[in-house]
Structures are given as structure tokens and as C-alpha cells.
User: What shape does this take?
Amino acid sequence: MRVSMVIPPLTVALCICMVMSIMMFIERVYMTVVVILVKIMRKKRYTQYKLEALKEDLEQNRRYPMVLVQIPMFNEKEVYKLSIGSVCSLTWPSDRLIVQVLDDSTNDVLRTLVEMECKKWIQRGVNVKYETRNNRNGYKAGALREGLNKEYVSDCEFVVIFDADFQPDEEFLWRTVPYLLENPELALVQARWKFVNANECIMTRLQEMSLAYHFAVEQEVGSSTCQFFGFNGTAGVWRIKAIEDAGGWKDRTTVEDMDLAVRASLKGWKFVFVGDLEVKNELPSTFKAYRYQQHRWSCGPANLFRKMTKEIIFCERVSFWKKLHVLYAFFFVRKIIAHWVTFFFYCVIIPISIMVPEVKLPKPIAIYIPATITILNSACTLRSLHLLVLWILFENVMSFHRSKATIIGLLGANRVNEWVVTEKLGNTTKPKCSVRAPKRTRSRLGERLHFSELIMGLLLLYVACYDMIFGKDNMFIYLLLQSSAFFVVGVGYVGISTPN
Assistant: This one.
């Protein structure tokens, strides 16, 4: 009975996971090779545009383009002064700069405070436009779309977008806009993120490891090869003509930034990633905020993949290779396979295989390939190398949520359009002595416990005990560590706690 009912489907599942693992391994190795070649040959895409010469030409001719800076926000009590102040301090001719604060806040007191902050900068000579809406239709995409439709925007050539917790340097526009002036085929200049609260707790350090790889490798490879990558939704400069050509902002998914980038790319527009230009921002430091963010970042791309696959395949304006890159590498492997193989293979199939010794688990696939992928991922954050084991365990736990969100996105199921704004705590405004994680506060048991993680922890603990007694390959060591990680997250002991 066991042979006929369990082994065949388990063998099929194992083969599927092995194929997915190999696909991810090849993609990681390919990106690593590209990044190494780019560094050795010193041919990063943005260095080929000769920024200094472009800046000198702009200063001599003094033909400054009209630039719009949009700051979308929603109940950003802790950080609104931070972003408005940084943007209003940008060095650019004041008569060629418009700062547009798009405030969707539902708190009337907070709206008043934000408006007062805008008036303060207006009195200092900055052209600030404070815009509000009576609804949140389209969420961020809706706010950005309505902002571009204002009459005073008609003269603007470029639009810069900063989320409410971002602090651009004064020279940001001088280090981005010139690329677009002399290269009419460019639609987007994307800067890198710099995390001001990475040292706040272990969870923020682990996030830094994941995002450092995204910027240093994924974005750089996309920029250097086919000049396409996903817009990060902030810290980027768009050519307004390219936004209009692509159909404008759409709110059909929770990743309006990626949606716009893909549509603009299909129209033939090119992007450039400026890896040495960093913009300060804040990482979510509570697990609740991080989990909501990861649901949106995982569900949205899968849903967009479902909605745009046919459009990408039948697009005639881009090459076959670019379409293959977008569908296979950008969407399928990085946004879907990466989550599935991490959870289903390492947290489900491998533990079940241990309970069914008739199914042989190839060690190169189960150990060497993931070890190689892990080393490649962690090489971008050497200062956190000692946290490598914790990062692996935490990423496996988070892959549970990401895999679930990916399936929701592919099926268009419940929560597919759930949008929860990532909570910011304004840690960038606090002195260093107070950056330490605050003492944990008592909270209701239901809010603190995560039962799905606790169940996964119990299942892995059971398999670990089984392997410890009957197994011969010492896999119980990994299983005990992974079950402990699920338990730690399950009891809410991750990130920092804030008073309700």
C-alpha cells in the first residue's frame, strides 16, 4: 500500500523540485559570471554614458529640464518630515523643480501636520504642491496617476519618485537626470537603496543580505545585459513620455512599479541602474510589517506574470531573447521558482523523503547545489557572513509565506490585491544611542503566535526525531535547526516589538 500510494507521487515531486533547483542554480551562476565580467572589464552600463561630460554640458548650456518629484504617503507619521525635507533640499534650479506631496492619509490631524510641513518649505522658496484625495482608489498607483494628471505637470519632462521613508542626497538629480537628457532611448534611471536601520535587529540584518544581492547582482545584470530590470517603485527617475507611451500607471496588481517597467520595456524603452548612487531608507523592523511586505512583493509579481504572459509572447517590438529573459529569468525563475524550491524542496519534500527511505535523495542536489547558491547570495554582504546560517533558516521560514503568496497571485485568489502599507518607525531620525531594539511589550496571545509556523516546526521536529533514531545521514541536524527557526518565528520572537 505504501509503495503504490506514497512512493510514486513523492518521486515525481522530488524530480520536479530537483529540476527547479537546477534551474535556480544555473540562473544564479549565470548572473554571478555576468557581474564578475562586468567588474573585470569595468563596463557597467551607467559608466558608458560619461556622466561628468553630460553634467558639464548641462551646466554650460543651462537648459535645465522641468523635474517633478512625487512623494506618495499614507499615514506616515514618523517619516513625513524626513522625506519632504530631503527632497526639498535637492540642488536644482528652484524654478525648474516641482515637489508634489501625494497624501492619502486618513488621519485628519496628520494631514494638517503634513500640509504645515509643505507650507514651511514653500516659505523657503520651494515649489511644493500638497495634493490629497477623498479615496484611495488604486492605492499608490492611483495617487501617482492622478498626480501626473495635474495641469502644472504638463511642462515637466521627468518625474522622480520617493517613498515616504527615503532620503535622497542633495546631488541626486545631478547624478541621474543627465543620463536621460542625452539618451532619448532611456526611460528609467534607478538608484540603489541604503538601509539606515540595518543594525537595528537580527531581522533587519538578514533583510539587508537578501536585498544587497538583489541590487548588486539582479539589477546590475539586468542593466548590463538587456537594459531591463524591475523598477523598485522608488529612488528612480522616469521620462514622463515613456510612462505615457507604456499606458501610464495601472493598479491591476500590487506591484504597479514592476507592471510599468515591463510595459515600458515591451515598447522598446531602455533602463539603466546606477549602482554607486545610494538613497537612504528604512527596512521594516517588525515581523508583522515585513510579512505583509513580502506577501505583496511575492503575490504581485506572480499575478502580473499571469496577466502579462500572453502580451509578452506576442509583443513584436522586442527580440525573442528579451522576451525569454523577461518570462523565464525575470518572472518564472526569480519570482516563482526561487520561492517554491526553497519551501517545497527544503521544508517539505526532503523531510518526507527521510520518512520514506525507498526514495533516494541525491546529495549533490540536496546539499551541494543549495550550498553553492547560498555562498553566491551571501557574497554581497561580507560583513554579515557570520549570520549565514541564521539567514538560511529565516529565508526558509519566509519562503513559506512567499510560496503561499505566489500561488495566490497565480490563481488570482483571495488577498491577491491586498495592500498594506509597510509600517515605518522613523528610526533614521533617532540618535544612535536609541537605535537599539526597544523592550518587548506584552501583547495579546493571538497577535503574538503564528500557528502555521508552529505547525511546520512541530512537523520538522518529528522528522528530526525520526531521523535521529532511524536515519544514517545526520539530516536531523538541519531539521532541528530549521524547526527551531519555525518555532522562534511562531512565538513572535523575531524583529522588534512596538506598543499597540
Observations:
- The first strand starts at residue 67 and ends at 73.
- The two ends are 53 Å apart (CA to CA).
- The chain has a mean pLDDT of 90.
- DSSP finds 17 helices and seven strands in the chain.
